[in-house]
Amino acid sequence: MSMPFPLVPEVATAPAEEIARILSDPGFGIHFTDHMAQATWTEAAGWHDDRIEGYHALALAPAGAVLHYGQEIFEGLKAYRRHDGSVWLFRPDMNAARFNRSADRMTLPQLPPEDFVTAVRRLVEIDQAWVPDATEMSLYIRPFMFGSEQFLGVRSAAEVTFVVIASPCGPYFADGVSPVKIWISTDLSRAGQGGTGAAKCGGNYAASLLAGRQAHRQGCSQVLFTDAADHEWLEELGGMNVFLVTSDGRLLTPPTSGTILDGITRDSVMALAPQFGLTVQERPISLSELLAGIGSQDVVEAFACGTAAVITPIGAFRLEREGQIEEFHLPSPFGPKTADLRRRLVDIQWGRTTDQFGWTTRVA
Ligand code: PLP
Ligand code: COI
């Protein structure tokens, strides 16, 4: 039986002036809407107790499983306000499907995709006043699930909590949509074969933080991981997938061979690429190919993509090789193909062009 996520009990919403003040400069992941969706799963009763309530702190026992063994997964998607005031989601069915793939890897229960989408839709519908209408701003939605059982034995939790919260946001990077510099890590790894790299689980992000700190110390915005075995093959960034554009019109991206996240933006970019004369090559890309390609101007553009980052141009890569710090600048730091793909993607998301793939769905 599907879950309706009723609103219980009604809570007061923030005054319109307070919402307007926050939406004028929301930042990323700082402010949260008035409500949250929640449901509980137990081995005995399955999913139950679905509801939308006022945004509040969760009560979790100190012995709650997630605090000890990190059994947690999450998703990220956005709601967009169009010129006519309507509010739309972008490919929420893909997030629902990936949530279940992540759940499978982390031995969390499957959540029927329709329940995932209902929880998201209901929350956005109820909190629609929080969807900004300014350019490049949207409502970031964060569904997550974790083991909430009180038990210190190492096994899958028999009680699990599902929550959806939402946060109005502007661009993910502080500099907005300008080219970023990326640190390539050739010592720390995010994920290895057989590990959890393809799951959207909190542990992957915890594992990426030290490399992220190194990146910041190197004056870079994010880290690009290489494979754990040889540190020779490009994987993905801490929170984004990566693409390269070649001078002969190829769009290269590493394959999702179990260690990287199967990004929904990545999938969308690959679907749009032929419209801009780009031939997609999803195949292993070595660090040597990247660096030599920039040197010879065969690799002309690079960008990172994800729900939070949308499509963010990469201006330069920095790394340490044989004890030396080196920097490689892209011939086109915000090149025409990156700009074309970005414009088309955001135009679809904000309903400014035909949605020929049927990716968008109206909520309010
Ligand atoms: N890779 C990682 C590690 C991410 O956290 C994200 C963001 O969700 C992505 C890639 C891009 O995925 P998507 O486009 O589905 O947001
Ligand atoms: C997203 O784009 O949804 C992500 O999960 C990235 C996150 C690091 C903010």
What does this 3D model show about the protein?
The protein is of the alpha+beta class. It folds into two domains: 16-169, D-amino Acid Aminotransferase, Chain A, domain 1 (2-Layer Sandwich), CATH 3.30.470.10; 180-349, Alpha-Beta Barrel (D-amino Acid Aminotransferase, Chain A, domain 2), CATH 3.20.10.10. It has eight helices and 17 strands. The strands form two sheets. Strands 8, 9, 10, 11, 12, 13, 14, 15 and 16 form a nine-stranded mixed β-sheet that branches. Helix 3 (92-105) packs across helix 4 (113-126). It is globular. The protein binds pyridoxal-5'-phosphate and 2-OXO-4-methylpentanoic acid. Residues 76, 236, 239-241, 261, 263-266, 306-307 line the site of pyridoxal-5'-phosphate.
- Uncertain stretches: none
How many E-type strands?
A: 17
Give helix and strand order, one letter per element, not per position: HEEHEEEHHEEEHEEEEHEHEEEHE
Largest sheet: 9 strands, mixed
Any guess at the CATH architecture of the largest domain? Alpha-Beta Barrel
Shape: globular
Q: Mean pLDDT, rounded to whole units?
A: 97
Radius of gyration: 21 Å
> What fraction of residues sit in β-strands?
25-35%
Q: How many separate structural domains? A: 2
The CATH topology of the largest domain turns out to be D-amino Acid Aminotransferase, Chain A, domain 2
- How many angstroms separate the termini? 25 Å
Which range best describes the helical content: under 10%, 10-25%, 25-40%, 40-55%, 55-70% or over 70%?
A: 10-25%
Contiguous helical run count:
8
Ligand names = pyridoxal-5'-phosphate, 2-OXO-4-methylpentanoic acid
CATH superfamily of the largest domain: D-amino Acid Aminotransferase, subunit A, domain 2
